[in-house]
Amino acid sequence: MATSWRSTHVEQVPAADRPIPPSGPLDLREVRFPTRAESVLPEVLAALQARTPEAPCAVFTDGTTWSYAETAARTWGLAHRLAEVTGLARGEYLASCLPNGPEAILSWTATCALGAVYAPLNTAYRTPQLHHALELTRASVLVVHADLAERLAQLDPVTLPHLRHVVLVGGTAPEVPLPWPVSSWTEVATVNGAARPVLDPPLEPWDECAVLMTSGTTGASKAVRRTYAQYDRYTESSFRMVGVGAADRFHVCAPLFHGGADTPVYSMIQLGASFLVDTGFSVSRFWDTVRRHGCTVAWLHSAMSLFLHKQPERPDDADNPLRLALLAPLFPGYQDFARRFGISVYMVYGMTEMSCVFTVLDPTEVGSLGAPADPGYHARIVDEHDVEVPPGTPGELVVRHDLPWVITPGYLHDAAATARVWRNGWFHTGDVFVRTAAGDHRLVDRVKDAIRRRGEFVSAAEVERELLDLPEVTEAAVIGVAAEMEEEVLAYLAVRPGSDAPDIHRRLVQRLSYFAVPRYLVVRDTLPRNVALRVDKPSLRGLGVPADAWDAVAAGVQPTRERFGPA
Q: Coiled coil: which residue ranges (predicted)?
């Protein structure tokens, strides 16, 4: 058996000899509120700096490894420089728009060290989405990659009065002038032996750690407030419960502005484990990367796992250090996938707004989530009046927890949206579930207007807004259509005479994140409407992809994920 993947940092055993964690709760801490030392990121990092200074913390694909001592030293140094250069202070918001890399990790840890709040933004944001996010978070400082400076230059500083400083990563000066003071990353990231910043009073578990932008499935994107206690509960319900511990290394390939990546990073630090920061997901190099860096745990959304499963089989498929894969959601061939690569799989149900309600190790059926795995969670299936429905009847899943602060306190600067999800003492997920007589919870559907494409949730409302902002578009309806790997985005349009689909698509590329740009455009004289005069999306979904749909992939003009730095 080849042993090239064995890591000097992570003790490994061959796949066949690996102990398989038992199903069900494993070392889930009793339901009690966490202490500051257990849950607050700067406290945890400082403790590990003292207790296990040489243990690996952050690993990068270029071979660089930061120990806990180095990670902490870099964090404290950056925190002091951010305070000196940008004036970032406790309670303020630092937004970042960065690809995966050391800068994204340190921007977060240093922000927390100052008692400020971290707001990571999607690097695919165009100027309108970037403006909305900066306005909503009222960010004082923005750390942004130099390749995105042109989008920033189009912003009006008068409409962003809170933003006072920009830190540019990957360059010393923007090619286009920016209307804010600009510093380079090298100016603020110097390791200078600084001590950890002293906060008085200290941070507490109920304090805000980060805000994450939603995908805007029911309107404009919202900023989800996440406390340190919420991150702590993610660690318990998503990782400690399935046996992840200090000997593990998590492969992070999702963007760090997603909950599927920032949560594992936080949790690995809490567990004293390590994590590999990959620049992105690649079918061709995934297993080589896992072997080279000794990764033992990974998160793979369904398209990733399907891509890997569709690759030609190799005799050494199971010769890898990975022992656990979080598949979200499961795909029908997940059991064959697990056997082929010699791993255990598990699935979870949670949201940006809350830690995982359901955690299932080695699931036996797609869609079956069982009962809440976290003993602190209570779940009900209710009708539109919040009245519980009988078993077998679809309804909305609502939840609450015995502990405070482990579900989001709400949406930043959006009291109306907060009131809509927090009703009658329960958090409303917006997802349709059915509970069987035996107590098994089954997910029926996500929020109706959410489209899942390549691991991203696309907001139909956001795409429709951009379409309707074009003068030639009079009506628009955006839906998801089935594709081999999740869904594709299709837009039905009613347009003025003389308009054409390729021109509309070209302008959408300039206005939307790459993953939100529709692949298909269908032009009609008018769109069907129901008795309430709303566009009849159910009937449109039933049509699939019409034969006369214009296809951007076939035309060779569909945008793809952007790459940063030198070609």
A: none
Q: H helices within 255-392, ranges in order?
A: 259-271, 286-293, 302-309, 334-341
In a 13 Å sphere around the CA of 314, the CA atoms on its Cβ side amount to 11
pLDDT score, position 533: 56
Helix (H, G, I), strand (E, B) or coil at 390: coil
CB 398 within 8 A of CB 432: no
User: What CA–CA distance (Å, rounded) separates 567 from 550?
Assistant: 31
Q: 196: helix, coil or strand?
A: coil
Longest CA–CA span in the chain (Å) reads 70
* Beta strand extents in 388-538 (DSSP E only): 395-401, 422-423, 426-435, 441-445, 450-453, 456-459, 473-482, 487-495, 520-523
The b-or-e profile of 276-291 (16+ CB within 10 A means b, else e) is bbbbebeeeebbebbb
pLDDT band of 347, cuts 50, 70, 90:
very high
Phi, psi at 203, each rounded to 5°: -65, 150
Q: Residue 3's pLDDT is what?
A: 34
Q: Using an 8 Å Cβ cutoff, are 119 and 93 in contact?
A: yes
Q: CA-CA distance, 276 to 264, in Å (whole number)?
A: 10
Q: Facing residues of 550 across strands?
A: 521
Domains (range + CATH), the chain: 30-344 (3.40.50.12780), 450-555 (3.30.300.30)
Task: Tell me the DSSP string of 234-264.
Answer: HIIIIIGGGT--TT-EEEE-S-TTSHHHHHH
pTM score of the predicted model: 0.83
Q: Concatenate the DSSP letters of all residues of 430-473 into one string.
A: EEEEEE-TT--EEEEES-TTEEEETTEEEEHHHHHHHHHTSTTE
- Checking if the pLDDT of 217 tops 60, the result is no
Give the C-alpha distances (Å, rounded to integers) separating 516 from 10, 140, 168, 558. Answer: 39, 28, 26, 11
Dihedral-angle region of residue 310 (phi above 0 means left; psi in -120 to 50 means alpha; beta otherwise): alpha
What are the tokens at 412? 């930043």
| Residues 6+ positions from 496 with CB-CB distance below 8 Å | 471, 472, 473, 474
- pLDDT tens per residue across span 81-118: 999 999 999 999 999 999 999 999 999 999 999 999 99
pLDDT score, position 530? 60
Tracing tokens 């406390």 back to the chain, one arrives at 227
Residues 6+ apart with CB under 8 A from 556: none
pLDDT tens digits, one per residue of 63-73: 999 999 999 99
Give dist(CA 167, CA 94) in Å, integer.
10
